[in-house]
Inverse folding.
């Protein structure tokens, strides 16, 4: 990609008659910094969405299992902090328990 940008900058320099003291790498540095910043922001947005979904799943599952409010807050915070890991654990171990308890009012078996 940088080869294409270098080519465009050199072509632009010859067409528009830029001075020789202009730094050709300034645009490339700005482009790389902006692209990396965009990916960082996108990663943070995806991370927040996954984390909030994990916290919501934890809250709903613990509500259906009859946990008290303090346990639900604590476990939702843990699920939010470890979003991806919680979703994996939920898919492997908790999805069948939480889905089967959603239609019944049973107390916490533990």
């Amino acid at each position: 990609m940088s080869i294409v940008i270098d080519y465009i900058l050199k072509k632009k320099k010859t067409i528009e008659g830029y001075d020789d003291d202009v730094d050709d790498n300034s645009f490339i540095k700005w482009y790389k910094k902006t692209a990396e910043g965009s990916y960082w922001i996108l990663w943070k947005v995806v991370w927040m969405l996954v984390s909030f979904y994990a916290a919501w799943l934890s809250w709903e599952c613990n509500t259906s299992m009859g946990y008290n409010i303090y346990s639900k807050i604590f476990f939702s915070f843990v699920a939010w902090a470890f979003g991806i890991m919680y979703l994996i654990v939920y898919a492997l171990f908790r999805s069948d328990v939480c889905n089967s308890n959603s239609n019944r009012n049973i107390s916490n078996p533990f």
